[in-house]
Amino acid sequence: MQAYILINCKTGREISVITELKELPEIIEINGIWGKYDVFIKIKTPDPNGVELILQRLRNHPDVTDTFTMHVLYGQGGSIDQEI
């Protein structure tokens, strides 16, 4: 499973959230961004429930105020063969 997640953080807590999330092996890319959201992450996991587990962790994080998740559709630019 692969997904992109946009995150809003409490003001001034972006760097600490990024630093903490960098430690998760499922996160293969993470960036602070400008605009409606504060942080962009790309996750990849072999576990069918992996995306949901990451989302639960994010939504329970005291400095995360909102998330927006986009699941990758295999066969539209990627293929099921490219999935872990």
TrEMBL record:
It holds the Pfam family AsnC_trans_reg. InterPro entries: Dimeric_a/b-barrel, Tscrpt_reg_AsnC/Lrp_C. It comes from the Archaea. Residues 5-73 form the Transcription regulator AsnC/Lrp ligand binding domain. This is AsnC family transcriptional regulator. It comes from Nitrosopumilus oxyclinae.
